[in-house]
Amino acid sequence: MVTFTMILQLCIVLGALWVGSRYGSLALGAISGIGLTILVFCFGLKPGTPPTDVIYIIIAAVTCAGIMQASGGMDWLIQIAEKLLRKHPDRITFLAPLCTFFLTVLVGTGHVVYTLMPIICDIALKKGIRPERPCGVASIASQVGITCSPIAAAVVAFVSISNANGFDITIPGVLMISIPACVCGLMVAAAASYHRGLDLDKDPKFQEKLKDPEQYKYIYGNSATTLDKEIPQSAKNAVFIFLGALCVIVFFAIFQQALPAYDTMRVIKGAEPLAITESISLSADQLVKANISVAGMTETFQKPLAMNLVIQIVMISAAALMIIFCKAAPKKAVAGPVWQSGMVAVVAIYGIAWLADTYFSNYLDEMKVMLTDIVAQYPWSIALVFFLVSVLINSQGAVVVAMLPLAYSLGISGPVLLGVFPSVYGYFFIPNYPSDIATVNFDRSGTTVIGKYLLNHSFMMPGLVCVFTSTIIAYLLSMVLY
């Protein structure tokens, strides 16, 4: 039964997330700590478990990507994307989101687009295309790619939490669903954006700007490009090392029998507690945690190295190889936007997921009573929950870590949850995410905007179209394949 205290505590959770999103950056995780403090010390709730596995993966992946950026490898990837876009400028509304999407898939973070976005705007202006069209959907694509990256926290967390709840899925298995679904969603969003707004030569506001010589010079006087930058071979080698690391991770995800295996204990189903004295007994779970083997209660089996550890080992090793052989300066990596934004994500996930787990773990029975009938009849409705939580939490990884265990505890099947996986991206709804704000600033034409009423912004339509389409396609694919 829902109580006043339960509602009050939920308001504290939501309030902490809302206030944190207002301040942005590290504040989202730090202010979640205030909510956690109130729940634990004022209401006496038992603290949840911080998502350490996800955090370690983010640290390893971001360190590797940051080192690659410091070596100049990211400049080479951006340069390749720019060559493609400038070769086909009339198709930029479709090609720009594909470029930002696959950059995110490769690197595992959407913050790699800051160099490419001014180039997209420049190409659109020179072709006479309204920059809002490619820029809006390209910014959305840079975040959609997170659910399609083998090293992104959201994907790895989905796999590890699903395996722990009986859904035997691998990283390639997730990508088989998410990549085609999200690409289709992006192309539908691009098609919807193709004739969006007035053409520049018919836009009275834009034409009025051009009458001012200073504005004209600002809009057309600069040319953003990376094509004049010479890329050393060491930078290209860093990219090859990074791609090689991704291939190794995907290989082991597919062929887990090739991983080293170790003796691990598990509980024998139906085992009775071990009586120590008349008043003290130990359960099989307690014996496993203490690494004590007892015949009839525990058994030993061979367990392969966990994929979360594989990703960490491979990524850290790849970063070391780049430092040694590719002239990558660690100090430059730490100062770079990829590493810094990744560390901000670590703090955000740490605070948000811990706060959410504390609340939901203490009210799991009540949640089951409230939601079981709904999700039993309409299991896909959990997608709305994921989306709404994501609106408050600027991290897809945090949404997965915080909400997926609850979804499994409600009895929702793994294939259904895999099908609604794209719905964990909803933070475009309120345009306060760095990539969206940066895109508005990069568009010199002023057509990419945050509207007067906040929600009537340039990212709303492509975001809703993409997530809605991607989720439907992913759901259908998952139902067919699983």
Number-wise, the strands total 4
Quaternary structure state of the chains depicted: single chain
DSSP summary: helix tally = 22
- Strand arrangement in the largest pleated sheet: 1-4
Low-confidence stretches: none
Q: What does the overall shape look like?
A: globular
Return the string of H and E elements: HHHHHHHHHHHHEEEHEHHHHHHHHH
What structural class do the secondary elements suggest? mainly alpha
Overall average residue pLDDT: 86
Q: What's the story with the biggest beta sheet?
A: 2 strands, antiparallel
Helix content: 55-70%
Strand content: under 5%
Rg on CA atoms, Å:
24 Å
N→C terminal distance:
35 Å
Report on this model:
The protein is mainly alpha-helical and 482 residues long. Helices cover 66% and strands 4% of the residues. The protein contains 22 helices and 4 strands. It has helices spanning 4-23, 27-42, 52-71, 73-87, 92-107, 116-127, 132-144, 153-164, 171-193, 204-210, 213-220, 233-254, 284-289, 307-325, 330-335, 337-362, 364-377, 382-392, 396-409, 414-419, 434-442, 460-481, and strands at residues 261-267, 274-275, 281-282, 298-304. The chain has a two-stranded antiparallel sheet. Helix 7 runs antiparallel to helix 9 and helix 9 packs antiparallel against helix 22. The chain is globular, with a radius of gyration of 24 Å. The mean pLDDT is 86.
